[in-house]
Amino acid sequence: MSEPLRALARTRWRVAISLTTVMVVVYFGFILLIAYDKQLMGTLVAPGLSLGILLGAVVIGASWVLTYAYIWWANRTYDPELERLRHEAGR
Amino acid sequence: MILQVEAATTAIGQRNPVAIGFFFAFISITLGITYWAARRTKTTEQFYAAGRSVTAGQNGWALAGDYMSAASFLGIAGLVSTTGFDGLIYSTGWLVGWPVVLFLIAEPLRNMGRYTFADVVALHREQKPIRVASAIGTLSTVTFYLIAQMVGAGGLIKLMFGLSYETAVIIVGSVMILYVLLGGMIATTWVQIVKAVLLMSGAFLLAIMVLMKFGMSPTALFAAAAAKYGSSVLAPGKLVANPLDALSLGMALMFGTAGLPHILMRFFTVPDAKAARKSVFYATGLIGGFYLLTFILGFGAMVLVGPDAIRAVDKGGNMAAPLLAEVLGGTPFLGFIAAVAFATSLAVVAGLTLSGAAALSHDLWVNVFRGGHAGADEQLRIARGATVVLGVVAIALGITFKGQNVAFMVSLAFAIAASGNFPALCLGVFWRRATTMGLLASMVVGTLTTLVLIYLSPTIQIDILQHETAWFPLKNPALVTIPLSFAVGMVVSLLTARRGAAEIASFEDRERQMLWGDKRA
Question: What number is the ipTM of this complex?
């Protein structure tokens, strides 16, 4: 296996594990806030909108943003590099 | 003026001509699709993987259809309508697994496997031990999920169509067998797509009708709920009493998604890894949008129907969304939502059965009993036989487990998927030193400890067996079993490094295939 291909595999792993970690921190941060500070989560940030509901929507929004970030990276960086290496190997 | 339904005035539980009409329309359309698909299902690749011809957009909808069960539509709406904020814990938990599927699982799975996730774990390793262990993991997950879906569907249909529970279970099972047996993955995919479109549009329509009563403002709706039932409905309540329980449930929901066999199987239906990646992006968008909608539906039902009226119809609160539909759009709209819920159960059950049949036929029969040597006709015949067997088992399980707690069965399925399947898949793909024995140990220990700890948990020991105490304190074992499964997999791999030397040496071949797929460049 060529060195550039191995480097790409390592980069892919690093991106995947970093984004997974961010998702884990966001979601378990939300769960731990619910578990340890119910009162805070019940505070109203706007009429009818508690911090808990807002953060719940933020968790869903964060899932969207993170999946988009991955797709963006994959389309911009990963796919072209993979394609380039495939051509090189074919030569 | 705010409408309030009395339990006595609802048409739920009576035969609803609109519901029956919509239901027959759905059955006719999907059986038409099955007839069309049956003519395109001649090979195992078509039967298991729709000939790899599903586009990213189609697979995104189908993934959403496979994942959004009646339990999440009716269950979350019901939970929110009766407890408020607590339902949101499930809405978020059921979504956050999807980014993990995208980052870690989707593309490697498509590049390294053919029909089942066992293909990926067993790649360049000893076939038999890994296939047997992953078939056990798959079949346990599928069985508990099937029980949950069949019992839930039977109960719902009984309430909404006025049929007997047993008749309802037999109808769902028989129609599902027809889809899978004749149309394989092509029919199953299209049933999921039709169902997902129906479910999304039903939920969207309902949410818009709710919001129209509150000047299109969700916060005005939440404020109305707080004004009527106290501001505590907007804050966490009793669901999360114990932080460790909350963490454990969260882990099962998050990593369980990445180990559900019927979800994993969908990645083999697209042409390449890029399409697999795109399809998860679409699915995450759809599922997240759906769970945001369930929040409007839940609070809408709380304000417009009322928790007492909802509990009067069904103690678990599962009828919140249909009751809301009745208040807003009368009996016809109730009929539409009821038919959507029926279609939802049917589609999820079909996806589960197909993945279970693949484990039985592709993993156990072809790769274990026949040592990988089975003719094309034989493979297809066994796959179809396994479908019928599993369909009949699903009907029997549905009838046997009548009245059981459905939510508990779902959490059990997620815990097994998260501890039995996900760690082995992760180690098998990404870890150089993973050996056959290590992965085998990870799957067996993950699945067995999950089953044992659930048996020893308060849910079984205190709630069901009426004992004073439970040996294991957590309701969901994932907090213990996921790390344990990873640890056992790693320790056993290191201990068997000598026996697995060739497997470790072939890591670079696996890595190349993970990136490039099977195509030799």
Answer: 0.95
